[in-house]
Predict the 3D structure of the following.
Amino acid sequence: MTQTKRTPHWMTALANHYDQARRQHPDDRLLIMFDIDGTIIDIRYMILHVLRSYDHAHGSGYFHTLTLADITVSENQIDELLRALPIPQQAHADITAWFMKARWSPEAIYQSHRPFNGVLEVIRWFQLQRNTFIGLNTGRPGTIREETLRSLNALGDAYRVHFPTDLLFMNPGDWDSDVLAAKVQGVRYFQEAGYRVVAFIDNEPANLAAVDAADPANEILLLHASTIFESQRERVPSSAVAGESYDLTALLPGDKIPGKVQLVWHAVNTQARIEQFLQAQVHWGEFDIRRDPARGVLVSRQRSFQSLPPTAGASEPLLADTLARLKSAGRGIKLDLRDGLATLDEVIELIQAAGVEQENLWFNGRIERLLEEGFRQLSATFPGATLQCSIDFLAPLILGAPATAKETLDMLSGWGLTRFSVSWQTLNKRQILRQMEAWDLPVNIFEIPNLEQYLKAALLLPRSITADFIHPGW
Ligand SMILES: [Mg+2]
């Protein structure tokens, strides 16, 4: 009989199954078991890397135009790939021998292993949950335990993911020797160590079938990572859920983000947006404050009056009204002082007249507009407020010349700045955030394009996130 019922996204199935297991076993140590190759690691990068290194070492050009998309076989079926390419038959044996020798070399593992998009965030999410663990169950032999942990932890670091050695189960035999039995042994290993295995994710149908047979009570949700696999698809157990992408929006609703991240609703500049914001759960609203040259008053407005002249009849919300409205609603007010020092005294007067509590005040400004003088004035007037500037101008230095970047950050802290804003569009953002965390400097993330990216950013647990909370699903 064909299944007509619409099955949920595999990540939703995982989330539901996990929640159910948690309810049934509130105090157990729950463990989600992951295979590595083809499940966490997109093995195509390694295949491409090793084949290119063959060309490099032999002065040949067989793989110059080979791309990731051309690789549709697993690392054990390289002969199939060679047959599909215009490579002379007599070279196949030599290339295959090279490949088999080089593919699991420490160099290849370290240089060419890349995670699938979203998988490290999924792992991070579970590692953040109380009494919840990720176990690795791999067919790789124990002889490469050290390289495996080193490369996975190097990849995981920027995502705040760590794999400890006792949660890695490796094939006790040699390469490819009885992987099915080893996968079942892995389940027993974690169970005997006191974990309740609640789910198993693998790209090989046969591995899922083996674990299925060893789990008569069907406690373990089987998830088929439908990437590249060797065993027949028919062997995927009927109870398994298949998926291709580690979609965070399917795993967790937007409001399920762990605790302490402060959320700021970006650009609450119009009357309509203010009403929307006041209905929402987000505590902080951000307003771009500018002087309206025609009326001579401070208003909130996204675009400058120079770049977008006012349209007839338009009247942007007055800062004085906005302050009174948010103060009475008990909400946090983040003011982006677009005119910098030029309007600072007036801003301060209006805030004081409205009587806004300091803990509900947050200022953002560009250092070349507010200057040292402006930040120091704000810090002296509202010592309990948050003071922020963007540090994207420092981004290359934070990784390239950290000591120099740190001097500048110390200078800014000396001016009174307490929050450093990093665009989610910045190159190497995760490494930059890692360094800021190591320096114990609180970060705000902004310029987040959609819900998925918001969830990715939130899992890094920055001090705050500024985003447009108007996307579908939010
Ligand atoms: Mg695999």
Remarks:
- The two ends are 38 Å apart (CA to CA).
- The chain has a mean pLDDT of 93.
